[in-house]
## 1
Amino acid sequence: MTAADYAEFSNYAVASGTIVLALAFLAHLAELLFVRQEAVVPASVAVGGGDTAVAVAESDDDVEPRSAVLSRIGIALTVVAAGLLVAGVVSRAMASNRVPWGNMYEFGLTGVSIALVVYLVLVRITSVQWIAPIVTGFGLAILGLAWSAYVPAGPLVPALHSYWLVIHVAAVMIAGALFLVGASASLLYLLKERAELRGNVGPILRRVPAIAAMDRLAYRTHAVGFVLWTFGALIAGPIWAHYAWGRYWGWDPKEVWAFITWVVYAGYLHARATAGWRGRRAAIIALIGFATFLFSYYGVNIFVPGLHSYAK
């Protein structure tokens, strides 16, 4: 295959992956709708009364809830979408004969691919499929931004010719995937805690784990992500900057916001370890940290001119 063939295959794979991910997102939304419907089925069955109600209840015991079926369908579609997007990333790399993160389109594509793979691994290990609507919806949004910044496959600008770029971006993207999982757990924590305080926990929030379990998951994923962010953004990044621009740190907007993200997450971990900030306050700080990460990842390149503007 020629470089043009690989580039065309990449475009088809990414487009197909985007469509499949959209179907996965819709499957998980439908799952939530059926969760609400299934929550009122026992009350409707009981209206029949007597032996009829018992017979219907017994017959329903052998029928798998539609929400469970849709959950499995959504996960399966996410697996397919992740495979297609990874194929798109690899073929994009072969088309341009370089690592596929030299511009905003490639950043978005590779970032979503890594986030989906990390999410699916965690689903297998710790059963975090309850954050599926957030992860798939967020992935779709980032892919939409990536497509809006699409550029054909081509060579890197000179500043990007360094293996430290590979290390720097790979670590940052994996950290971002873990931050996404932690932010999802933190958001659901806040929603469920508020519902519990009001005494009105609906069927959807009853499906997610206890708030203490979500708090622990958020802490663990943020802790690992913070280590990777520290290495990728504040160690490998400056080394690459020295190779590219002759200095380790120059207060470029991208560098500043990467440092702001580091400070917020460092504050999150420090507050939990020393001041006992768990639960609601920790979740709010985690969401602030994720917002700074998103601005560092996308907003700076779009809205704030700097040395990283070539990556648009």
Note: The radius of gyration is 22 Å.
## 2
Amino acid sequence: MAGFDKVVTSYAEAMEGIKDGDTIIAGGFGLCGIPEGLINEIKRKQTKELTVVSNNCGVDDFGLGILLHDRQIKKIVASYVGENALFEQQLLDGIIDVELTPQGTLAEKMRAGGAGIPGFYTATGYGTPVAEGKEVKEFNGRPYILEESITGEFAIIKAWKADRYGNLVFRHTAMNFNPMAATAGKMTVVEVEEIVEPGELQPSEIHTPGIYVNRVIKGNFEKRIERVTTSK
């Protein structure tokens, strides 16, 4: 069993090997299902010139947003900017390169990258700035644009449970981008709430098989709520 055990006990070990200029694919949607501790470790390491692929960039003081303060991110591929004022300001000031990508296209870029598919055609974005410079092809009389898939040196993932072999279970909406992102990293590191022994997870409940996972760490999560709305 020891040879298949993917559990590490420190964040330094979890993110060992990350270097300046790497592409990091991050799971999460807003602040839901984000790998909080792994992001904090990238902050601590002060790794620079990163390309980050994620639905969005957290908020100013939490999630991926904390990497903007010391300008650790060179480029971000995302579908949404709105909740992070610093991200928005750096975009407008030309400090950070941003590739805005339709949300479904971004998910498929990750999934295709993990499946070894270099590109795919989609109608989404045709006739908009998203399509500029991209190949267009017609299928059944409808135009589609060619989108390239995405892979990265690291994928950082949040899951609910994992066994020591790296098999993953996600919980409710925290699944979001995590399963696709997990397949697209050369080194996939997963932060989880609970680690169980092999055999405790039923095959039917596993969302991402351990073949995609390199390292697992048990995290401590703040699980901050991005925006609280209550009725009067």
Note: The CA atoms of residues 157 and 190 lie 5 Å apart.
## 3
Amino acid sequence: MIDKSLNNASEAIRDITDGAVLLLGGFGLCGIPEASIKALAERQIKDLTCISNNAGVDDFGIGLLLKKRMLRKLIASYVGENKEFEKQYAASLLELELIPQGTLAERIRAGGAGIPAFFTPAGIGSDVAKGKEIREFDGRLYLLERWIKADFALIKAWKGDTAGNLIYRGTARNFNPLMAAAGKITIAEVEQLVPAGALDPNHIHTPGIYVQRIFQGESYEKRIENVTISA
């Protein structure tokens, strides 16, 4: 098997340049590619288009890229929790495409499956439908949505092998598997990296054919946006 493993995040994201389109895995702050984002934030690149479930928080996740004004456009389903995003968007320094979460997931899945477009009822009668083709099927209106693909997909898994096979854990199995298939180059970071063949094939969520680079990260913070406790 081909050994796709690299030493660290900096090596893995070495050829991401100005203007790149990136898929960033995770749901909220759960399962985000922390190491890859930190490595990106240390680079002097700009005009990135980032596609993510969320905008991170001010000092973590995509918030690190926003703080350095590395983004030209954000495509997401949720942009709360981030004052830096709010400031840049209000000052017209950042473009935003806000997409219903189910539609975002399906557009990414379609990109990975090679399906250029599909019809969905989500967004009918709202600003989401502006400028899009609308057709009627069985007495109900649907709007046309196009696939999403990217130059790079940056994802995180719990365990992977050097051939790129991945296993996710709990909620971290969210947008990551979809994005793994929709990137021209998929970079996976894992908490545990094992030799090829060490994983039970029945437990693999993302086959290695979708992954071009893999590395083992370290010191993961695994933050959450808000802590809620009962009295």
Note: The radius of gyration is 18 Å.
